[in-house]
């Protein structure tokens, strides 16, 4: 008699390969209930693993609400207010402000600075012939890009990175360490906003949000601070893990890596295939606003549901041979790595650009790099597929 199926996304044994379990879930347990040991706010949560169900849930914000938070077993009232944890109409009002200032031209203008930063980060390690692709490289590029977008002092970059790790890289998103980081960030943003209120005409994102057209949307000081926290966390966490995971993935697929060097025209689809394959955001939560029945199972109103982006991106009903890394994959842009519906990632273009430039820069100087697999350390699966250490030899 086979053992009953169990899957805990917070158990480290599942960090390296969650996809085998996702396949079983899609086939046998498409609506899977998981109890939370020593829970704080919710005694259990549900998981959706089929692409069709995930697509539906992400687009149906009325039944699958973000207003009570998107992190499992976390009290959203303890976090800075931001549109990530909101539903319309307020979500749409705040999203519109950011969409107006994070323009395609602004994103395109970042490329030169990102490339310069990437090369500068790699250069000190060439003589040693080794670097940690996570801590020495992948974590630094999004942090430096965030400093550029928000006009923050590069000298504070280690502080910014530590806040990001303390708030999003663990398994307790409202624990003492996370709340301390949010408090420190709140004080930092309060001083920053006070300074930038005094000066109009700034081109950084914070100044443009602060001095937006107030006739259309009025912002509270809390919401402005929430914007800063959102930009800080979202602009770093997902992308740094995407870059590190992509470096590991290309190290494990040398034939695909060689194609990128010989056929640079592949980069556009290659980045999206890597996004699908890696799925840097593996899962985010919603809360049901009414009873929802799927596949004969009823999720009660008020329960948390973990929407498994990574399972959707490896669903055999959505992608042929999903466990294969294929830079010729048709319709690859239909993946769920950057969300769907009203919460589709506004920074998607920045993330794609940072990932492409980081990988191109590495392949320019070390096309045959090797991942030191025995020293690879993963620290998380949800919400993001985190890598704590990823040493490579150059």
Describe the structure in brief.
The chain has 394 residues and is α+β, with helices and mostly antiparallel strands. The protein is built from 15 helices and 12 strands. The protein has helices at 19-28, 51-59, 90-101, 104-108, 111-122, 133-138, 140-150, 157-168, 176-197, 205-210, 221-252, 254-262, 267-278, 309-313, 348-365, and strands at residues 31-35, 44-48, 64-65, 130-132, 284-288, 292-294, 297-299, 304-307, 370-371, 377-378, 387-389, 391-393.
The figure for the number of domains is: 1
How much of the sequence lies in strands comes to: 5-15%
CATH architecture: Orthogonal Bundle
Q: What is the CATH superfamily label?
A: Cytochrome P450
CATH topology: Cytochrome p450
* Terminus-to-terminus distance: 49 Å
Radius of gyration: 21 Å
Please provide the count of β strands. 12
Order of helices and strands: HEEHEHHHEHHHHHHHHEEEEHHEEEE
Q: How many helical elements? A: 15
Largest sheet properties: 5 strands, mixed
What helical percentage do the residues reach? 40-55%
Tell me, rounded to a whole number, the average pLDDT: 94
- Taken from the alpha-carbon principal axes, the silhouette is globular
Assembly state (oligomeric): single chain
| CATH class type | Mainly Alpha
Low-confidence stretches: none
User: What structural class should be given to the helix and strand makeup?
Assistant: alpha+beta
Query: Order of strands across the widest beta sheet?
Result: 1-2-8-5-3
């Amino acid at each position: 008699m086979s053992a009953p199926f169990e899957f805990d996304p917070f158990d480290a044994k599942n960090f390296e390969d969650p996809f085998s379990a996702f396949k079983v879930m899609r086939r046998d347990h498409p609506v899977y209930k998981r109890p939370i040991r020593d829970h704080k706010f919710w005694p259990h949560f549900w998981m959706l693993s089929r692409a069709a169900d995930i697509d539906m849930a992400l687009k149906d914000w009325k039944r699958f609400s973000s207003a009570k938070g998107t992190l499992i077993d976390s009290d959203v009232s303890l976090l800075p207010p931001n549109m990530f944890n909101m539903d319309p109409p307020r979500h749409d009002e705040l999203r519109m402000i950011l969409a107006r200032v994070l323009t395609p031209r602004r994103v395109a203008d970042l490329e030169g600075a990102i490339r310069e930063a990437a090369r500068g980060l790699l250069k000190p390690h060439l003589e040693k012939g080794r670097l940690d692709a996570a801590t020495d490289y992948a974590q630094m590029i999004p942090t430096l890009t965030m400093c550029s977008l928000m006009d923050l002092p590069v000298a504070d970059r280690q502080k910014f990175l530590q806040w990001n790790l303390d708030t999003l890289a663990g398994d307790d998103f409202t624990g003492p360490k996370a709340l301390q980081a949010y408090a420190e960030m709140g004080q930092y943003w309060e001083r920053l906003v006070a300074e930038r209120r005094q000066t109009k005409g700034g081109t950084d994102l914070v100044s443009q949000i602060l001095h937006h057209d107030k006739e259309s949307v009025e912002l509270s000081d809390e919401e402005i601070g929430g914007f800063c926290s959102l930009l800080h966390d979202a602009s770093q966490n997902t992308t740094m893990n995407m870059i590190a995971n992509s470096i590991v993935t290309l190290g494990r697929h040398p034939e695909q890596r060689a194609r990128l060097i010989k056929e640079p025209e592949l980069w556009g689809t290659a980045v999206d295939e890597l996004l699908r394959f890696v799925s840097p955001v593996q899962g985010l939560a919603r809360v049901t606003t009414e009873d929802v029945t799927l596949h004969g199972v009823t999720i009660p109103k008020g329960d948390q549901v973990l929407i498994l982006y990574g399972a959707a991106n490896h669903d055999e009903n959505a992608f042929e041979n999903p466990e294969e890394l294929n830079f010729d994959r048709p319709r690859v842009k239909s993946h769920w790595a950057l969300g769907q519906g009203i919460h589709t990632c506004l920074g998607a273009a920045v993330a794609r650009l940072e990932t492409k430039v980081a990988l191109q820069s590495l392949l320019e100087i070390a096309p045959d790099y090797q991942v030191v697999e025995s020293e690879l350390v993963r620290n998380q699966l949800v919400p993001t597929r985190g890598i704590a250490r990823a040493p490579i030899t150059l």
